[in-house]
Specification:
Elements (H helix, E strand, L loop, with lengths): L14 E2 H9 L9 E2 H10 L5 H12 L6 E2 L2 H14 L4 E2 L2
GO molecular function: calcium ion binding
InterPro entries: Centrin_CML-like, EF-hand-dom_pair, EF_Hand_1_Ca_BS, EF_hand_dom
Protein name: EF-hand domain-containing protein
Length: about 100
């Protein structure tokens, strides 16, 4: 999956870490700077990923290291990037 400048997903392309973070921020509905389970679920469903609700739950389990229900610090974002690369097969390139 990929991110284009117009924020449309194109499976045959890749995105940088910064583009991934910018795309993810689009789903921060309450603009608090963190990603909740519901926001992550909406993001994955926008990619038309099968079982997006379940994969969002798994992503939260992997990335939410302080178990506060939010992905809210750079270390957790990096864990989410790794999850997206490994489990969702999103092509994300280094910064």
């Amino acid at each position: 999956m990929a991110l284009m400048c117009c924020m449309q997903v194109q499976p045959q392309r890749g995105m940088t870490v910064e583009q991934f973070k910018a795309w993810l921020r689009r789903f921060d509905a309450d603009h608090d700077g963190s990603i909740s389970h519901e926001e992550l679920k909406e993001a994955l469903q926008s990619l038309r990923i099968w079982f997006g609700w379940w994969k969002a739950r798994q992503g939260m389990k992997e990335a939410d290291s302080n178990h506060n229900g939010q992905i809210d610090n750079p270390k957790e974002i990096e864990k989410l990037v790794n999850y997206a690369q490994q489990r969702l097969h999103v092509k994300i390139y280094g910064e």
